[in-house]
Amino acid sequence: MSPATDASPAFRPKPERATGVYRAPGAVVPGATSAVADGRPYATDPAGYDAVLLLGFGGPEGQDDVIPFLRNVTRGRGIPEERLEEVAHHYRHFGGVSPINAQNAALREAVERELAGRGMPLPVALGNRNWAPYVSDAVRDLADAGHRRILAIATSAYSSYSSCRQYREDLADALEETGLGPVLQIDKVRPFFDHPGFVAPLEAGLAGALAQLRESGLDPAAEVEVLFSTHSIPDADAALSGPSELELGPGGAYVAQHRAVAEAIMRRLGDPAPWQLVFQSRSGPPSVPWLAPDVNDAIAELPARGRKAVVIVPLGFVSDHMEVLWDLDGEATETAEKLGLVAIRTATPGVDPAYVAGLADLVAERIEGRPVADRAHLTELGPWYDVCRPGCCANARLGTGPALAGIEP
Length: 409
Known about the structure:
Largest sheet: 4 strands, parallel
Structural class: alpha/beta
Oligomer: single chain
Radius of gyration: 21 Å
Order of helices and strands: EHHHEHEHEHHEHHEHEHEH
Number of helices: 12
């Protein structure tokens, strides 16, 4: 196999960061429909959307795509080639194909069917941040098909730069690249971390795992630890997640939201076992503090506390993509087994009917202009904002770039 280069047939650099974004006269929120253009935190007026845009991360489709894809992901961060090669090994283990592409394609089809079944026959397009089809491709295709009022859904449930604001920046990048800012209006559904549709599959998976361990003779209250795992991010970015006005403490909205969902799941199950919020997949240099504890470090401490089994709940992930398969099914499970622990990794929402129905509900609440009091949520933090507040989820290193679905900056 020849070494991958940026000349690989499928490669195209992702769009440059936007230098500006179109804002209609009198609008506070750039690129927005009239339902939220004035900057109100929640959209409580009906909106006539004519398409839905699913925002994905993207991934390589073959061995020659792996390094170009990783260069897209890390562009501007000064990541050395040897580090890219280390991460490339994860993808090469699976033939150079990221599972996220097929997963998002299946989710797109499922959401489109669900919307049609509810009497909302909207086309659902998929646009990626780091690989074709890019967000700009999807935006251009929707415009060419005559669509003008688009509602976006990010395939990420929580508030942080990479999981929310960067998707909003992707939308601004796409409008600048295509020149469609004066033509299209694009809003985005709220972060859905505590929507019952997202939480239900995670809760069901944990309930099933605990039942399985009970049947094997283990006592969850004394012999099992539940680890709710999510992607680690730099401490500095976590501190900036969510609007500063909320004062959510160390870790900002990112940690607060994950912890609130974990608490809700355990409470709904009757607090059956001890648990922790843990982190995985850090990629920064050791000199930069990232959220901890790492899932493997947490597992290593369990035998000394009398634990005989661990249940790993992928709380921060919507599908079984590379970081779930490699970091949890591979490294974390191996760590547990070396220590003599029984390890169960529960399922991500994927295309679970409850999750698909939940995403359709998020579309419906925006079409209807549903009152905040009537919106589904399982924690006191929700329902989260439809329109991100000024400076929300800034990047500690890059600051804030032009973004849709929020008040500038």
